[in-house]
Amino acid sequence: MSSTGIGYAASGSHPDKDSTTPKPTLGTSQGTTPSAAANKQEAALDPNNPYARLYIPQNAPTGADAQIPPDAWTHAYGKPSHNAAFPVPASAPAWIRNGVKWNFPEARAWPLSDNEPYGAKIYGIREALPVQTQFYGNALGVAFAKGVVYAESDDMFAYAINAQTGKLIWRTSPVGNYLMGNPVVVKKLVYLSAGSVSFNFANVVAFKNDPSKAARGLDISYNGVYAVSRKTGKLKWYFATRGEAMPTPAYDNGKLFITTGTGNAYAIDAETGKQVWKNHLGGIANMSSPAVYKGHVFVAMSVKPYLYSLDAKTGKVAWKGTIPKAANTGMGDVSPVVSDGVVVQDAVSDVRTTNGKGTMNTTVRAWNAKTGKVLWTDKMGRGPKVPAFKGGVPMVHDGVVYVGSPVTSDYVALNLKTGKQLWRWNVPNAGPAGAARGAPTYYKGTLYVSTGPSVYALDPKTGKEIHSVHVGGRFGIVSPAIIGGTVFLGNSWDWVNALPLHDINPNYKG
Amino acid sequence: MSSTGIGYAASGSHPDKDSTTPKPTLGTSQGTTPSAAANKQEAALDPNNPYARLYIPQNAPTGADAQIPPDAWTHAYGKPSHNAAFPVPASAPAWIRNGVKWNFPEARAWPLSDNEPYGAKIYGIREALPVQTQFYGNALGVAFAKGVVYAESDDMFAYAINAQTGKLIWRTSPVGNYLMGNPVVVKKLVYLSAGSVSFNFANVVAFKNDPSKAARGLDISYNGVYAVSRKTGKLKWYFATRGEAMPTPAYDNGKLFITTGTGNAYAIDAETGKQVWKNHLGGIANMSSPAVYKGHVFVAMSVKPYLYSLDAKTGKVAWKGTIPKAANTGMGDVSPVVSDGVVVQDAVSDVRTTNGKGTMNTTVRAWNAKTGKVLWTDKMGRGPKVPAFKGGVPMVHDGVVYVGSPVTSDYVALNLKTGKQLWRWNVPNAGPAGAARGAPTYYKGTLYVSTGPSVYALDPKTGKEIHSVHVGGRFGIVSPAIIGGTVFLGNSWDWVNALPLHDINPNYKG
Predict the structure, then answer these.
(1) For residues B217 and B107, is the Cβ–Cβ distance under 8 A?
(2) How confident is the model at residue A383, as a pLDDT?
(3) Which of B251, B275, B325, B438 could tie B349 with a disulfide, CB 3.0–4.6 Å?
């Protein structure tokens, strides 16, 4: 079942001898590019060094395999709608249409057969599951472009994997920090975002004195966006941020948009890494990734809980909204979704303590994307407080919002225009940390959900479960990336997995 | 000047084929040993994996080289007195008596020729220096035993290096966490301590509501003590702690003593990894490592700033003391020193804001080790607030305390019994983060200090500088480990360095 695809020791020498000096594009202002430094680091790495970039050209796809759509991966969860589904033409290679199966172990791969995470005995399962997601494996899912699967891991490496064979094309660890995002792939570059959930002591004290002054990730390792060659993984530039850059950047029209733990939003020239604009919004971006739609960037922040619509050209605030009684980390966890002129965001909310036990709700709200007018507000239901990443990432397809909540471990379907609830499905065996964080994926009449150790196929009209497959490990905030007849998924156990849709959905007509 | 010593790729195959199943000793209570899990991880690692343990037996010392004292390394800074000096007999090999010179690049080695740390452009030098110490390279210095140098790094690896050749014997990364300590080496095992300076968000909120309730490192990766084979680096057992275990354990009489970010002190059976006792003292241990002396363990905590004398057999508090007006992280940063019946600790203290600028003092206090009676208190002087690790580690030799303070970047010599100041020496070019954190080492009539990028030789009677050598990088909280005619030092740039004493002190008679 495993295919390591690492030719390193087998080949007897390091396959990447390229030592040409990179030509970094230096940034000009605070939030920009110490690429000279970053490249010095790469140069300093002995090729036999464990963190040295590894590039195995013979594992890259060729011919028709290298033309499989999509050509680019521009947002977390693939699109502003978060529907990570990409059909392929009938002329695409049979393997991608029929579905392929492999499991690629990343650098700290924990046995998929082990139901318990690494820290289960010391933290207990409830806490150990999110720790495994935040500090061990893949927090979000993977990206796909032209026959290659790209993954970022909290093992501090990023990977390019041949989508057909599951063999490693390159891996790189340009920074000693956690890579918490979904790689963004555009033209010749792959964009990685670095940061962790941590605060240093000065910011613990700052939060005590004035919560709006605390910055996540400040002075905690090296945060920012790393642009590496799509072909080789070689570092091209590094856009450093003071606070964590856990959110996945969004790409649109030559620019990357990113938010940080210091409450900043940035636009960066995607080719050069130079800052285009910066807007200090305040608050803290946790894992909430921007979505770009019709010239506006939608970003959300915690602590001061706001959703912002920013002009993509200038960064100026067009409007801002909030979710009533949003909990501390509520709005900064979840990525807003935008589709059909509507932006939807959810947040855990209305935290109460009853008989010494904390409970919370999850509130979903929709706004007119252009005007910021609130269209509807829905509550998903009260339940016990849940650990880290407390919301569910919404997805929109064909006028319906699909969104989960770990508070109740339910997914619901809501009418995008009215908020009317169409159905509710409870994740089986959700476990003590709660399930239902990842965005569902709609593909050819079926809804696919990855949560806990399993992938589910649901009827999108009724929410009824059709079938499920146990993969093992934990899908943290992972949405199934469906390309042709194959689902690609990263997980918290530090594996990247490929599964045929046929396995998950016996009704699938490939 | 560099000698990588890594035979991995050169040998064409992974030199360690040993895949026998380890026999973990499982612990029995909360603070104990999920070694089965830890060993499962090792088993899961492909030998071609970047984090796979690497063992190169042919690089280990043999014969007389493998008999060079000390045989063990029991405390941070080598001894309860923090004087990391170990003479060798005249019969010891010539190379260790005359001094050896090499620079071993660890996994993220940053060029020694680069004066600026990785994050200089984004954080500024003042902040980037401690970030490099806390998240990049070696925070403390190295350990030495029987011809082998042992190092822990924030690059997440531990290393065993041949002291003569500078070649790698083994490296291991049993956990995806920062290794902030000084390896402890006793009998057949090396003890590593894992943890970071970070807080998660729940503890940021906890600190706001009640500072004494916050825990450092809780739910931040995997904390605790890792025991690995001295010969091969193979993991033997893992004593997990909920909070960070940044302090270096102290070894005495078959037991390890460690304190954590959750305010616990533990005694652990050094052979089996089983908990002997636990005492919840409260507060937070940052980098303050225990010292054992005449059946008592001296440990210090922050936030609730106390020095404790604990009965080594039971963990019960014999007495506790404090430092007046100790700043938040003051007492938990610095390791108490004990010698000649006196225990000495310092802490930054009396923080004031004048004209919008923060200033602080450093207070040194001495107690009767047996009774806890305060013997004397001295103030080292006021200066601007300094970033992380705010004190200086004291060392005692022959009735004199030698201690630095980054607040003034001075080292002072104080009479151990009276506190009378004998001299004061200001570190040249201390830089914006301040210098003088590491403990000095007294050896054959000379005092050696490693701070900033340099190693200094001082006259211990007058504090006058004799000579200095520029190594490069930054010595964070590093004391020179002197064995025979050689000084061994780790640094924040992720290098381990060996230097002949002759180079640092032209007057040295080897």
Answers:
(1) no
(2) 96
(3) B325
CB atoms closer than 10 angstroms to residue A469? 16
What are the structure tokens assigned to A173, written together? 């660890």
Helix (H), strand (E), coil (C) string for B164-183 = CCCCEEEEECCCCCCECCCC
Confidence (pLDDT) at A213? 87
| Residue B330 φ/ψ, nearest 5 degrees | -55, -60
From first CA to last CA, the distance across chain A in angstroms is 23
What single-letter DSSP state applies at residue B382? -
For B365-378, what is each residue's pLDDT tens digit? 999 999 999 999 99
Looking at A467-481, B22-36, B131-145, B170-184, which range is the least confident one?
A: B22-36
Q: Which residues of A touch B201 (CB under 8 A)?
A: 197, 199, 216, 328-329, 388
Q: Where are the beta strands (DSSP E) in B322-372?
A: 337-339, 342-354, 357-368
Structure tokens at A15: 């396959």
Smallest Cβ–Cβ distance between B240 and the set A121, A214, A241 belongs to: A121
CB A74 within 8 A of CB A84: no
- Contact between A118 and B200 using a beta-carbon 8 Å cutoff: no
Mapping DSSP to helix (H, G, I), strand (E, B) and coil, where does residue A245 land?
coil
ipTM of the complex: 0.91
CB A257 within 8 A of CB A291: no
- Give the type of residue at B87: P
One-letter-per-residue 3-state SS of A398-437: CCEEEEEECCCCEEEEEECCCCCEEEEEECCCCCCCCCCC
Residue B478 to residue B484: CA distance in whole angstroms = 18
Nearest to A88, CA basis, from A192, A164, A170, A142: A164
Dist CA B104 CA A208 (whole Å): 43
Which amino acid makes up residue A309?
Answer: S
Ramachandran category for residue B224: left, alpha or beta (phi over 0 → left; psi -120 to 50 → alpha): left
Contact A123 B4 (CB under 8 A): no
Nearest CB among B9, B43, B197 relative to A13 is that of: B9
CA distance A164 to A99: 9
Look up residue B367 and give its two tokens: 């107690």
Fill in the DSSP letter of residue B65: G
Spatial distance between the Cα atoms of B447 and B395, rounded to a whole number of angstroms: 11
| pTM (predicted TM-score) | 0.92
Of A38, A48, A216, the CB nearest to B8: A48
Unique residue bearing structure tokens 């690497």: B54
Find, in chain A, the residue whose alpha carbon is nearest to that of B3.
A46
- Kindly state the percentage of chain B with pLDDT values over 70: 91
Work out the angle at residue B61's Cα, subtended by the Cα atoms of residues B59 and B65, and round it to the nearest 5 degrees: 155
| pLDDT range class, residue B47, cuts 50, 70, 90 | low
Size of interface A-B (CB pairs under 8 A): 217
Give CA B181 to chain center in angstroms: 4
Residues contacting A151, CB < 8 A, separation 6+: A106, A138, A142, A143, A158, A159, A161, A183, A490, A496
Residue of B nearest to A32 (CA): B122
B102-105 vs B495-500, strand pairing mode: antiparallel
Are the C-beta atoms of B380 and B341 separated by less than 8 Å? no
E strand segments, B398-494: 400-405, 410-415, 421-426, 441-443, 446-458, 465-475, 481-483, 486-490
Q: What is the pLDDT of residues A54-90, one digit of tens each?
A: 999 999 999 999 999 999 999 999 999 999 999 999 9
d(CA A222, CA A52): 18
Give burial (CB, 10 Å; 0-12/13-18/19+) of B236: buried
Q: Coil, strand or helix: which one is A132?
A: helix
| Residue A129 pLDDT > 70 | yes
